Amino acid sequence: MALLAWFAVNRRDLPWRRSRDPYQILVSEVMLQQTQVERVLPYYDAFLTRFPDVQTLASASTADVIKAWAGLGYNRRAVNLQRTAQYVVANLGGTFPADVEALRRLPGIGPYTAGAIACFAFERDVAFADTNIRRVLHRVFVGVDVPRPTAGDREISAIAEAAVPAGNGWTWNQALMEFGALQCTARKPACVICPLQSACRAFPAVLSALGELPRGVRLKREEPFAGSNRFYRGRVLAALRDHADDAIALTDLGPRVRDDFTPHHLPWLYDVVQGLERDGLALVAEDSTTYDTGQDTPLLGSQRVRLP
């Protein structure tokens, strides 16, 4: 097959491709959610050095897990990863199931991650689709996917299931992911040197579509990060990591989070840390006193926050 021949020449030597340990595969898949491979690589090795197996991760303090995750962003992933580990240790004796449906019953595991673990750890011939796989399958089997895909998730899932070659699911799915990451990219696909040209329903129309999108239509872009809620959540967690042995008052936390912080920002900051608490990323010490603004609001300045 042209795709597998391409993969044999172009595959990157990634550490999780050298493993069949379901725990290590789970860590890699969670880290790779919304994060590029090059950024994940050093964190993956460091995380496994700190938490080498599912038992170690399950028994660690959540604060230590969050600190080890520092720099990767989307810190809720770290908490969900530990919850999965704790469930596997507490309910399954530390052994991951190999069946997709059983994997999907684990907390924090969705259809994609369940398929990836079953395939990459246990070499099951199963189908699943991340962003790269979905793009490749849509272009090859359906057609142009810009400015938006014409096939829904159900149709792409059916295509993915039918396309997996018996006995070669591991290589096939790795090849699809790699092809979408390196060759059939979202914005600049290398269509003119693509080995799948003759079979691709999107070639060459996808080149025209990418170059001449309708007026006012753009491919989806990430929202600006600086100044966003996610940006400030990250700064709060960074401050808590630096202050990990003790709780920190909101009045002391505020200036660490934003340079223009004033007492008027306390309600906003309290909302941010409450969101982190709901996600299991922080603990807020409640206070029953009131904040002297003429309204029945908490004395926010005395609230204290720490890592779980």
What does this structure look like?
With 308 residues, the chain is mainly α. Strand 3 and strand 4 form a beta hairpin. Helix 9 crosses helix 11. About 4% of the residues have low confidence.
Ranges with pLDDT <50 over ≥5 residues? 288-298
Cα distance, first to last residue? 50 Å
What's the helix count?
15
Can you give the helix content as a percent range? Answer: 40-55%
Secondary structure tally: strands:
5
Report the sheet with the most strands, covering strand number, pairing sense and barrel closure.
3 strands, antiparallel
Envelope shape: globular
Helix and strand content put the structural class at mainly alpha
The average pLDDT is 87
Q: What would you say about this model in short?
A:
The chain has 15 helices and five strands. The protein is mainly α and 308 residues long.
Pick out its properties.
mainly alpha, 3-stranded antiparallel sheet, 308 residues, 15 helices, single chain, two-stranded antiparallel ribbon
Secondary structure topology:
Layout: H1 2-10, H2 22-32, H3 37-50, H4 54-59, H5 62-68, H6 76-92, H7 100-104, H8 111-120, H9 131-142, H10 153-163, H11 169-182, H12 205-211, H13 229-242, E1 248-249, H14 250-257, H15 266-278, E2 283-285, E3 290-292, E4 296-298, E5 304-306
Helix pairs in contact: 1-11, 2-3, 2-6, 2-8, 9-10, 9-11, 13-14
